[in-house]
Predict the structure.
Amino acid sequence: MAIGIVAVQGAFLEHEKILDRLGIEYAELRQKSDLDREYDGLILPGGESTVQGKLLKELDMFDTLRGWIAADMPVLATCAGMILLAEKLSNDDKEYFRSIPMTVRRNAYGRQVGSFHTAAAFGDKGVIPMTFIRAPFVESAAPEAEILSVVDGNIVGVRYKNQIALAFHPELDDDLTVHQAFIGMI
Ligand code: GLN
């Protein structure tokens, strides 16, 4: 099994450390030629969605990745990754993969209080630590999207078909629950 981790910008190293701990093979997706082999799952890390989206298009990686997602490859998307998967952004007119029927607000907590740490339930897997960094949240999701996590009344985790999208950064905490659930989808 091998996971492709989008590594054009952002917090991809932290995901790699978690996969190392789980003994899962992975490769960094930095350029188009990195997409020439087969992967069993895809990680879209946190970072800056605008930069990531722009680079993926400039590097001619975007359409291939969109094809993989549409072909039901399991995807774990965190923070900026959640923004890339949203069908619609409520405070930005950019659009990216649009593969989850949800409306996401970028920097939803405001720029000053945008970073915090808490703990909340992750689906039926129990309470896990959650680190938010200038995070988005989900303003609304179609009924077909399963809501995995809610913090302060805001949806911060959803699963839709093959995709898990989280507003927080599970890779920054010492808890393997999210990555184990993702690997379990493969
Ligand atoms: N604020 C970033 C964005 O809009 C996301 C922050 C993050 O990934 N930690 O893309």
